[in-house]
Amino acid sequence: MKARHKRLGLIVAGLAALGLGAALVLSAFQKNLVFFFTPSQVAAGEAPRNRSFRVGGMVEVGSIERQADGVTVSFLVTDTAQRLRVNYRGSLPDLFKEGKGVVAQGKLTADQLFVADEVLAKHDENYMPPEAAYALKQAGAPALAGALK
Length: 149
Description:
149 residues; cell membrane; single chain; signal-anchor; heme; alpha+beta; 28% strand; 4 helices; cytochrome c-type biogenesis; CATH 2.40.50.140; membrane
């Protein structure tokens, strides 16, 4: 084999390895990508089925129900236009309260129940994830979204 053919073979093998590595990285990134949806988007059918995603909005006042086991909690997340029932089994953040911002990550069941694996509460009185503030503004609650930037 000539030296020129060896170099060409090494270049082709290197490019193939680089392409394979890039494909593996992109595949792993795609599997770990989690999208954010509002209750209105979930109600409109825009949220994926059988795939984890995040839903965010405000915890509806009077909607928190704690089960007898002391670990399971059910509550409504609203963007003022729609609301979504969320079930969570685990310890809630200290800042989790009615009327406050929340982001839950989990999956949607066939009967429109969101089963959360993780619940995140806003960390101070002035913070709201940009996606949630935008969603509230789009849902017709600009004063609420502006107050919670």
